[in-house]
C-alpha cells in the first residue's frame, strides 16, 4: 500500500480541496502527492502558524482545508489554534510528522516530542498517533469526525509509521 497516496485519496474523498504544507522529510511523499493532484489547491507555507491562517481563509471562503506540518512547531501555533481555529469552530485536519520519537536520528527533535501530546491535550484537540502502516486505515474516519464536529484534529505520524528515515 502506498501510504502517501492513501492519505491524499482520503483527503479528496472528504472534499479537502485546500492544503498547505510546511517542508518535512518524513512527509515528503504526501507533499509530492498533494502537489500532483489537480483537485487540491496546494500552497506551501514558510511557517505552521502562517499555514493555519491560510487554512482559515480557505475555510471562510467555503473550502475544506488541511495542514501538513511537523510537531516541532506546535508551540508557535498555540495562539492561532486557540484564537482562530477553535474560536471560530474551524475543522482542521493536521497531519503532523511526530519528530523526536523512536528511530529519530536528530537529538534536538526529542525535546518537542516530550511536549507535543501534552500541549494538544491541554488545548482539547483530539489526537491520533499512527505507529503502524495499517493505522492509515483510520484516516478517512478521522477526517469525517473533524468535519462533523468542527474541530481541529491532530494526526501524529512517527518514524515507525513512515518506515524510518
Describe the structure.
The structure is a single chain. 45% of the residues lie in helices and 20% in strands. By secondary structure, it is α/β, with parallel strands linked by helices. Strands 2-1-3-4-6-5 form a six-stranded parallel beta sheet, sandwiched between helices.
In a few lines, what is going on in this structure?
With 165 residues, the protein is of the alpha/beta class. Helix content is 45%, strand content 20%. The protein starts with a helix and ends with a helix.
Keywords summarizing the entry:
six-stranded parallel β-sheet, 165 residues, 7 helices, alpha/beta
Compile the SSE list and pairings.
Blueprint (H helix, E strand, L loop, with lengths): L2 H11 L2 E6 L6 H9 L4 E4 L3 H13 L3 E7 L3 H13 L5 E6 L11 H14 L4 E4 L8 H11 L2 E6 L1 H4 L3
Parallel strand pairs: 1-2, 1-3, 3-4, 4-6, 5-6
Helix pairs in contact: 1-2, 3-4
Nearest-integer average pLDDT: 95
Q: What is the CA–CA distance across the termini?
A: 18 Å
Write down the Rg: 14 Å
Low-confidence stretches: none
Amino acid at each position: 500500500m502506498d501510504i502517501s497516496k492513501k492519505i491524499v485519496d482520503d483527503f479528496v474523498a472528504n472534499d479537502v480541496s485546500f492544503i498547505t504544507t510546511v517542508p518535512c522529510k518524513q512527509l515528503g511523499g504526501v507533499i509530492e502527492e498533494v502537489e500532483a493532484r489537480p483537485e487540491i489547491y496546494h500552497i506551501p507555507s514558510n511557517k505552521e502558524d502562517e499555514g493555519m491562517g491560510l487554512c482559515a481563509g480557505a475555510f471562510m471562503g467555503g473550502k475544506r482545508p488541511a495542514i501538513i506540518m511537523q510537531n516541532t512547531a506546535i508551540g508557535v501555533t498555540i495562539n492561532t489554534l486557540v484564537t482562530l481555529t477553535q474560536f471560530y469552530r474551524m475543522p482542521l485536519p493536521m497531519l503532523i510528522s511526530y519528530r523526536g520519537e523512536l528511530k529519530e536520528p536528530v537529538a534536538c527533535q526529542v525535546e518537542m516530542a516530550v511536549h507535543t501530546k501534552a500541549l494538544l491535550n491541554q488545548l482539547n484537540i483530539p489526537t491520533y498517533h499512527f505507529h503502524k502502516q495499517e493505522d492509515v486505515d483510520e484516516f478517512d474516519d478521522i477526517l469525517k469526525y473533524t468535519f462533523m464536529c468542527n474541530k481541529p484534529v491532530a494526526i501524529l505520524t512517527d518514524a515507525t509509521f513512515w518506515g524510518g528515515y
